[in-house]
Specification:
This is Phosphotransferase family enzyme. The chain is built from twelve helices and nine strands. It is of the alpha+beta class. It is globular.
Amino acid sequence: MEIAADPPGTGEPDGPGESEQLASAEVLATVVAAESVLSKRFGARIHLAEPEDLGGSERSIVLRVKVAASPFSLPRTLAVKRYVRPAGGATRDSWVREAVSYQLFTALAAEDRMCPELFAHDSGTNLLVMEDLGRAPTLAEKLHGDDARAAEGALLSWARSLGRLHASTAGREADFDALLRRLSPPKSKDPLTVDGPIAIEALPLLLAGEFGVDTAPAAWDAARRTLGLLDTARHRAFSPSDSCPDNNLITNRGVRFLDFEGGCVRNMMFDAAYLTVPFPSCWCAYALPPGMTDAMLAAWRAEVRVMWPDLDDDAVLGPRLLDAQVFWVWLTTWQFLTVPDLEQLGSGGSVPRPHQADVLVARWTGLAAAARRAKSVAVAEHAEAVVTGLRSRFGERSLPLYPAFD
């Protein structure tokens, strides 16, 4: 392994030099750990070189490494991800979910594998060694480009792929759970079960205090009913949990999903709402042009109807989609009002993102319109009142289109 690094410093970094040394030491440790786990996996020494930072997060390092020497037929390059925070708590749970998610897909036939293949993983170092999908653009890059037709095609491809992901993992919850048990299951299999119930109960008081908006009992009851999606046994499939545009690569083999730190099996309506909100867990989301949401939903529906024919019926799909939309809008509004540093709500990597108030106004406006179409009067009136409250605080807000459509 041809990597040189100075010894790591002690204590907190006191200048760029020491920060760079610490980063270099973490990269070195990640490559050494990857060599070790691959050697154990294949039973012979494997040398890695030329690590390239792919942009992880504050809790993880993600690298592309070259396979410099191997007695086996391995790809020329691999992707390596290592969680660098202490192994306990939420970080450990994220590693477990991601490792199990990649294991589940690696066991499927190649045509059903909607993510990188997993080559090796190690519980002791919180490490994953995966297929390198190359320099394919992300969905975010397409949406922030200057080609509307390419962006539209990428969105429709992503929606179809999301439907295929759901259809190919239908009935595999027992397999997922068995893999979880091997690695010590996280406290909550579905991350939404942690904050979702809290948000539904707490938001009305916050809305009253922050914006002077009262929540009618019927609207609150409708929001509480959405928690049933967390427990229902119907329409369950694998969920990436955070399918933001920057977590989807547009490759020549189709869309490939990345970042399964919240990967789980749950009601897929929470993912379907990504098509109608859109991208509800992402504060980097802009608006889509008229008709785009309907086209995306049709593309997703064409794939899932094979496994769930009842979703061809608008009377079945419509109410469940509205419930998922209510859940996401309430949850993300609660996050907006309770996260001390709004910058923590940012997502989307290096791409520009709109003001969070623009996002919130658009989400509540969209919820009001969807509820009106569904004749859910209490939900619609409450959403309209929230929009009025938001605008009285932040002024007239308008969420711009993604740059590709602007």
